TrEMBL record:
Protein name: DNA polymerase beta
Function: Repair polymerase that plays a key role in base-excision repair. During this process, the damaged base is excised by specific DNA glycosylases, the DNA backbone is nicked at the abasic site by an apurinic/apyrimidic (AP) endonuclease, and POLB removes 5'-deoxyribose-phosphate from the preincised AP site acting as a 5'-deoxyribose-phosphate lyase (5'-dRP lyase); through its DNA polymerase activity, it adds one nucleotide to the 3' end of the arising single-nucleotide gap.
Assigned keywords, A-Z: DNA damage, DNA repair, DNA replication, DNA synthesis, DNA-directed DNA polymerase, Exonuclease, Hydrolase, Methylation, Nuclease, Nucleotidyltransferase, Sodium, Transferase, Ubl conjugation
The species this protein was found in: Caminibacter pacificus
Subcellular location: Cytoplasm
DNA sequence: GCCGTTTTCGGCCCGACTGTTTTCAGTCG
C-alpha cells in the first residue's frame, strides 16, 4: 500500500535529482506537477491504479508519468529514481536546502570539485577554493557558509494557531505607521492551512520605502534578509520568515490574489488567462497590454470568466471546475455551530467544573454541550471509573434542571477504543451516555488492516456516537495512524456514526483532504473543541478553518443542528 | 514530460531581489 504522500515524495525526489543533473527544466516541472497532483488529490492513487483508472485523464499526467505512478504503486519502487540515486550522491540533494544554492550552482560545484557532502562543501568554501568558480563572490560564499549552519531550520513550519498572534501583532504594528492604508496577511495563513511556512504581508501605503524601513525595525526582527523597492524579507526571533510586499490601490486585488496562492491555484488561473489571450500577474489582468482588472479579487476572477473563490479552497483541488459548474460549496462559518460535543471537565483532566463550562457555553451562544471525560484506561489523563461517571451524571441532571431553557448538557464520555476494538466501558455505563465519543489513545502503530478493523468494530458498536480524532496524529509529534478511510467512511455512513474534526490546533484531524473525501461519501461530521479549559472552547475556530479547507458546508456538520434536531438523530 | 477551437512541434507562470558584472544568471516565491 502506497499513500499519496509516499508516491508524491518519490516523484518530487526524482525531480530534484533530474534538476541537479541539468535536465530540461520543463521536464523537471512536469515531475513536480505530478507530485503535487498526487499529493493534493482527494482520491487514493493506490486505489485508482488498482481499479484500473486511466491516470492520463488527469491534466498534467501523460503517458509516461501514468506508467511511472503505476510502477510505484505496484512495486513500491521507481526504477528511474533508483538509477538517479546511483548517479547523484545524496549530499548534493542536501545542498539544495542551503539558501542561495539551487541546482545550477550545486552542479557547478560538483562538476568542478566533485564535492558530495556538506562537510566537504564547507571546507571548500572556507579554503577559498570556491571563489574560483565564475559567479561565486565573497557574499555568496558567506551566504553558503551561513546556510550550512542554518540548514536544519529550513523547512520548519509553524502551526497556524502559533502564528496567529504574531500575525495580528504585526498587522497592528504596521497599521500604526503613517500613510499605511491596508495591511492584509496573505499566503497560506489566509488560506488557513494547518501549518504555515512564512507570513506574506501585503501593504498599501503612500510611501513604501519608509514602511519597509519601519517594518525591519520591528522589535521581534532578528535578521533582515532583503529589502527592496517593493519587497522585504526578515526573520523573527523564533525563526519565522516574514515577507512584506507593497502594492498600489489599483493593483491591490491582483496582488492579494497572487500572494494568497496557492501556487498551484495561481498557475491554473494564469493558464486560463493565457487561453483567453490575457496575462495575469500581481499587478493586474491584462489584455493587449491594457489593464482590465486588478483592484479587487472579485474583479480578477471575473476578468478570466470565473466567480470568486474563497481562499481556503484555492489549492487546485477542483475549485475551478466547481466554480464553472456552479457548485462551489457555501462554506461553514463559526456562527453556524450551536454546540460542542467534546469537552473535558475536572472529573477527568479538565480544569473546570461542569457548571463553569455550562456558563461559558451560554456566553458563547451555544444551545448544548456534551461533557465527555476520559474512560478508565487513560490513567494519565485521570480517566474515570464507573462509580465516578455515575456521580457525574447525577450532577449533570441537577445542572440541566438549573439551566433549563438556557443550555442542555449531554451526558457523555470519551471512551477508549481498546486494542481489539472493544470499548473501555461496559454496556451498563454506555447506555447511560447520550454521547459516546470513541477514540484511540494507544497502539497507534498497528498495521493498516488491524487498525482499520479496530476502528470499524467501534463504529459498529451500537452505543458509539462519534469517532474522535480519527487519525490520532499530532502535528510535529506523532504520525497519523495507518487506516483505510474509504472503508471507515462507508461504515460510518451505514451505522450513522459521526466523524470528528478535532479542533485542537495540533490535531485538526480529519485533515482537509480527508474531510473532502468524507463529505463526498456522505459522512456526517462534528466539529469539537476537545477543550480542557474554558479558553480552549474557542479552539473550534481552528476546526472551522480546517473544515472550510475541506469544502465543508453547514449541512455536513451535526453540531450546527438545533438541540431538537440533534436529539432526533441520536440513538434512544 | 505535458499539451493542443491557431498546434503532434514548440511552447511551457511571472516578476523581484541579489550578487556578480557592466547586462545578466540564479534563486526564490
Amino acid at each position: 500500500m502506497m499513500t499519496n504522500g509516499e508516491i508524491a515524495k518519490m516523484l518530487a525526489m526524482t525531480a530534484d535529482l533530474l534538476e541537479i543533473k541539468g535536465e530540461n527544466p520543463f521536464k523537471v516541472r512536469a515531475y513536480r506537477n505530478a507530485a503535487r497532483i498526487v499529493e493534493n488529490s482527494s482520491k487514493d492513487f493506490d486505489k485508482l491504479v488498482k481499479e484500473g483508472f486511466d491516470l492520463t485523464r488527469l491534466p498534467g499526467i501523460g503517458k509516461d508519468l501514468s506508467e511511472y505512478i503505476k510502477e510505484i504503486v505496484n512495486t513500491g519502487k521507481f526504477h528511474k529514481l533508483e538509477e538517479l540515486k546511483k548517479e547523484i550522491p545524496q549530499g548534493l540533494v542536501d545542498m539544495l536546502s542551503i539558501e542561495g544554492l539551487g541546482p545550477k550552482r550545486v552542479k557547478q560545484i560538483y562538476d568542478a570539485f566533485g564535492v558530495t557532502s556538506l562537510e566537504e562543501l564547507k571546507k571548500y568554501a572556507q579554503s577559498g577554493e570556491l571563489d574560483k568558480l565564475p559567479g561565486f563572490g565573497p557574499k555568496l560564499i558567506e551566504k553558503i557558509l551561513k546556510g550550512i549552519k542554518q540548514l536544519k531550520k529550513a523547512g520548519i513550519r509553524f502551526l497556524w494557531a502559533e502564528v496567529e498572534d504574531i500575525a495580528e501583532d504585526l498587522r497592528e504594528y504596521l497599521l500604526k505607521f503613517e500613510g499605511v492604508e491596508i495591511v492584509e496577511i496573505a499566503g497560506s495563513y489566509r488560506r488557513k492551512k494547518e501549518t504555515v511556512g512564512d507570513l506574506d504581508i501585503l501593504v498599501v501605503a503612500k510611501d513604501y520605502p519608509k514602511v519597509s524601513e519601519y517594518f525591519i525595525k520591528y522589535p521581534e526582527v532578528k535578521e533582515v534578509h532583503s529589502a527592496g523597492l517593493t519587497r522585504s524579507t526578515v526573520f523573527l526571533q523564533n525563526g519565522l520568515q516574514v515577507d512584506l510586499r507593497a502594492v498600489s490601490h489599483e493593483s491591490y486585488g491582483a496582488a492579494l490574489h497572487y500572494f494568497t496562492g496557492s501556487k498551484a491555484h495561481n498557475i491554473e488561473i494564469r493558464k486560463i488567462a493565457i487561453s483567453l489571450g490575457m496575462k495575469v500577474n500581481e499587478y493586474g489582468v491584462y489584455k493587449d497590454d491594457k489593464k482590465i482588472a486588478g483592484e479587487s479579487e472579485e474583479e480578477v476572477y471575473k476578468a478570466v470568466g470565473l466567480c470568486y473563490i474563497e481562499p481556503e479552497l484555492r489549492e487546485n483541488r477542483g475549485e475551478i471546475e466547481a466554480c464553472r459548474e456552479n457548485r462551489l460549496p457555501k462554506l461553514i462559518k463559526r456562527e453556524d455551530l450551536r454546540g460542542d460535543l467534546h469537552i473535558h471537565s475536572n472529573y477527568s483532566d479538565g480544569a473546570n467544573t461542569i457548571e463553569e463550562i455550562a456558563k461559558k457555553a451560554i456566553e458563547l451562544g451555544y444551545e448544548y454541550i456534551a461533557i465527555t471525560d476520559h474512560s478508565k484506561r487513560l490513567k494519565v489523563a485521570n480517566g474515570m471509573d464507573e462509580k465516578k461517571i455515575l456521580r457525574q451524571f447525577e450532577e449533570i441532571d441537577r445542572l440541566n434542571e438549573k439551566f433549563k431553557g438556557k443550555i442542555y448538557i449531554f451526558k457523555g464520555c470519551e471512551v477508549d477504543i481498546l486494542e481489539d476494538g472493544s470499548l473501555d466501558y461496559d454496556e451498563e455505563i454506555l447506555e447511560k451516555c447520550e454521547i459516546v465519543n470513541a477514540a484511540i489513545h494507544y497502539k497507534f502503530d498497528l498495521p493498516r488492516e488491524l487498525q482499520t478493523k479496530r476502528v470499524i468494530k467501534a463504529i459498529n458498536n451500537p452505543f458509539v456516537t462519534t469517532i474522535s480524532h480519527p487519525t490520532g496524529r499530532i502535528l510535529h509529534k506523532r504520525e497519523e495512524m495507518s487506516l483505510d478511510f474509504e472503508l471507515i467512511f462507508s461504515e460510518a455512513v451505514k451505522n450513522g456514526v459521526f466523524l470528528e474534526i478535532n479542533s485542537q490546533p495540533d490535531r485538526l484531524d480529519l485533515n482537509d483532504v480527508l474531510i473532502k473525501q468524507a463529505i463526498e461519501k456522505g459522512v456526517k461530521l462534528v466539529i469539537n473543541s476537545d477543550a480542557h479549559n474554558l479558553k480552549s472552547l474557542n479552539f473550534v475556530k481552528y476546526g472551522i478553518n480546517q473544515a472550510r479547507r475541506g469544502w465543508c458546508e453547514k449541512k455536513n456538520v451535526i453540531n450546527t443542528l438545533s438541540l431538537k434536531e440533534l436529539k432526533g438523530m441520536l440513538r434512544e
